[in-house]
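Hi U.,

Before I forget, here's the chain from the pilot set. I'm dumping it here mostly so it's searchable later in email.
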Amino acid sequence: MIVAGVGCRAGASAREVEAAIVAALDRAGVAAGSLGMIATSYAKRGEPGIAAAALERGVKFVVVPQAEFEAAGSRAVSRSERVLALTGVPSVSEAAALAAGGPAARLIAPRVAVGPATCALAITGDAP
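Structure:
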């Protein structure tokens, strides 16, 4: 399964979040219908734009527990010192995608930033 990890500035709209998801899917060459889940950090759990994007796509929305989020952060390939200082991980979207995808998940698209939103894609370890 393909997991989209999403991060955003406060108040990002579903349209803005969707633009980041589309950019990540395009970069990875992945069909939109392959996306099975949108995940974010516990700190972003109240962002209505992320939840609305998942609802509009008809995919599961997962809020990653902080401990799992931080553990997955060590597997992120992108690095923002600002994000690291604020969240404890170098990339919110990459850590969220990897954590939600499970311990064997791997990134297929590193963080893509579009406006106020970022998206990274991971494939779960149980996928071929």
